[in-house]
Amino acid sequence: xxxxxxxxxxxxxxxxxxxxxxxxxxxxxxxxxxxxxxxxLNTTNMEYLRQLIENPGLGELMERAVDxxxxxxxxxxxxxNFMFIQLFRHWENMYYQHKLSVLDKQxxxxxxxxxxxxFHHKGTQEWWIHRRMAFAEDFRDFLEKIEKPENIYPTxxxxxxxxxxxxx
Length: 168
Hints:
7 helices
């Protein structure tokens, strides 16, 4: 019996099993990283929305800013500018996570709908003209190439002005 052949075969099987185990661990780690990012994304969304819920004046200010940037006074523009920057930085981060295939496709799609809708509002476009250079070039190009949706994402003002729909 050739002991060297048996030892080499066992060693080869050990290497193969180690490679499979490593691949399994990498896949588990990738899943964990994606889940962690999704949780982080949710936390960031909730923090942004929490600001608007806890301070209704901020929510109203953002609605006015989205509607018409040019009609706001200097103090309102200052605050709305910071809120827009915070929101667009969040979207920029999501864009890069999407490009890296970290962000779940369905999650990206739902956030993209919101992003696209708000981006194409009149006030957001008026703000964007002045602030677009604060963001990475490929993110700017991405946003500016997105087609304006047929039905733009409604603001609260839009939703409260719609007639009630009676369901039967």
